[in-house]
Amino acid sequence: MKDDFLIGDEDRALLIEDIAAFIFASLDGHRSTTKVAQLVAQEYGVDEGTALADVVEFLGDLADQGIIEW
């Protein structure tokens, strides 16, 4: 679990692992969604369109849960 994230509080926690953990770790408040997708594409050897769709879906899920503002 070295590269995984456990976020939340006593009442609610979310384990973020694998590619989701990579995306979460890439969020620095300055990188665009497109730049994060480029990093995902490079790291996992997928095309940028697929990576962008995954990043957008993941960020939307986090926003829906109130974890991030996006």
* Radius of gyration from CA coordinates: 12 Å
Which residue ranges are poorly predicted, with pLDDT under 50 across at least 5 consecutive positions?
A: none
Give me the count of strands: 2
Q: Strand portion, in percent?
A: 5-15%
Main β-sheet: number of strands, strand sense, barrel status? 2 strands, antiparallel
Strand order of the largest sheet: 1-2
Structural class: mainly alpha
Supply the number of helical segments: 3
The separation of the N and C termini measures 26 Å
Shape: globular
- Summarize model confidence as the mean pLDDT: 89
Order of helices and strands: EEHHH
In percent, how helical is the residue content?
40-55%
Explain briefly what this protein structure is.
The chain is mostly helical and 70 residues long. It is 54% helix and 11% strand.
Task: Walk me through this protein's architecture.
- With 70 residues, the chain is mainly alpha-helical.
- 54% of the residues lie in helices and 11% in strands.
- The chain is built from three helices and two strands.
- It has helices at residues 18-26, 33-44, 48-64; strands at 5-8, 13-16.
- The protein has a two-stranded antiparallel ribbon.
- A hairpin with a 4-residue loop joins β1 (5-8) and β2.
- The protein is globular.
- The N and C termini lie far apart (26 Å).
- The mean pLDDT is 89.
